[in-house]
Structure formats: C-alpha cells, structure tokens
Amino acid sequence: MCLGIPALVVSLEGDHAVVDVAGARRRVCSALCDGLKNGDYVIVHAGFIIHRIDPERAVETLNTIRTIGRHSR
C-alpha cells in the first residue's frame, strides 16, 4: 500500500519540478500534470506528479499526519 503525502511545488523547469515535503526537497517529473504553478500542492508517486490537490485539503492532511506522528512517540 502507498501513502500519498501532499508535496508543495517550489520550482518548475520544463517537465520537472522540485517539491517539498516537510523540508525534504526532491526533483520529480511533472509531465503528467498540466498547468502546475509554484505553490501548488500535488501528490507524487514513483517520482511522478500524478495529481494536483486542493490547498486546504493538503494542509489538513499534513496537520493530521503531524498529529499522528506526535501521538506515536
């Protein structure tokens, strides 16, 4: 099973983007998702952006993940 964690697009160059997840940055392929902009939240799978998501939903999901992480210690 895969867990899709929202990633923030920080830069775009051609068919690639740099995304940020909790401070970790990674270069991924953006060719599968048209019309991306810096500041968009996306889901990345296997090095490809597969879906853009609503910013409110992304922040809610990230907050939930942080809460679960705090309670699992």
Explained architecture:
- The chain has one helix spanning 55-71, and strands at residues 6-13, 16-21, 24-29, 41-45, 48-53.
- With 73 residues, the chain is an alpha+beta fold.
- The chain has one domain: SH3 type barrels, CATH 2.30.30.140.
- Strands 3-2-1-4-5 form a five-stranded antiparallel β-sheet, covered by helices on one side.
- A hairpin with a 2-residue loop joins strand 1 (6-13) and strand 2 (16-21).
- The mean pLDDT is 92.
Structural class by secondary-structure content: alpha+beta
The counted number of beta strands is 5
Largest sheet: 5 strands, antiparallel
Report the sheet-strand fraction: 35-45%
CA-to-CA gap between the ends? 23 Å
Q: Globular, elongated, flat, extended or rod-shaped: what is the shape?
A: elongated
Question: What would you say about this model in short?
Answer:
The chain has 73 residues and is of the alpha+beta class. The chain has one domain (6-71): Roll (SH3 type barrels), CATH 2.30.30.140.
